[in-house]
Automatic annotation (TrEMBL):
Chain segments carrying region Disordered: 1-24
Low complexity biased stretches: 13-24
Entry similarity comment: Belongs to the FlgD family.
The FlgD Tudor-like domain, residue ranges: 84-221
Annotated protein name in UniProt: Basal-body rod modification protein FlgD
Length: 224
């Protein structure tokens, strides 16, 4: 009778015959490293493999005979994978993404776009644009009746008087009247990825977003 381990997730099968438990299966170290590198290469840069998942796979492979000491090899592999993930994330440069933020960058002649998740339907949904430093209200936009779910919005850069305001950062607040209570919701602002880099520790990918600064690539909600 044979059993198959979780190595199948890496495309490697390890079987053991109960009648000959003293016999071992030899797994080529280079083949394992190649398969693991391939797996990591094709992963989503915004949702990389967690350390616990990698550790689990290494624990499985280390139980098979013939692999030997992979400590140094895995250190080199880890460095290589971090660089590879950064290269994958580099494809985001110039792309528009959304992140949870209370501020958005108004470019010259541009607009601030975004969305928020409305927990319940409401007859009164309001978007307020204000100065992030003084708190002065620049524009209040009545979005009207909205059903529960994602509510998109766009601000054209004009104040309540219809005059274009100066480019810069502006605070964005989304509110809805639900059950007689004015409830605030977290906006997700559309912005552009300007650059990608590795953190000083070398194990986390950072993205620089227009007007919003640097943050973890994991903070990206959606790639547009």
């Amino acid at each position: 009778m044979s059993s198959v381990s979780g190595l199948n997730g890496l495309g490697i099968s390890s079987t053991q015959d109960s009648s000959s438990s003293n016999k071992s299966t030899t797994i080529d170290q280079q083949a394992f490293l190649k398969l693991l590198t391939t797996q990591m290469t094709h992963q989503d840069p915004t949702s990389p493999m967690k350390n616990s998942e990698l550790t689990s796979q290494l624990a499985e492979i280390s139980t098979a005979s013939g692999v030997g000491d992979l400590k140094q090899s895995m250190q080199n592999l880890g460095d290589s994978l971090s660089s590879n993930q950064a290269l994958q994330a580099a494809s985001l440069v110039g792309r528009n993404v959304t992140v949870a933020s209370d501020v958005g960058l108004l470019a010259a002649g541009g607009e601030i776009n975004g969305s928020f998740n409305l927990s319940s339907s409401s007859d009164v949904v309001t978007l307020t644009i204000s100065d992030p430093d003084t708190g002065d209200v620049i524009r209040k936009i009545e979005l009207g009746q909205k059903e529960a779910g994602t509510v998109g919005f766009s601000w054209d850069g004009k104040n309540d008087a219809g005059t274009l305001v100066s480019p810069g950062l502006y605070k964005v607040q989304a509110e809805a009247l639900i059950g007689g209570v004015n409830t605030a919701f977290q906006p997700e602002i559309e912005t552009k990825v300007e650059s990608v880099s590795l953190s000083s520790s070398g194990n986390a990918i950072q993205v620089s977003l227009a007007g919003l600064g640097s943050m973890s690539v994991n903070k990206i909600k959606q790639i547009l």
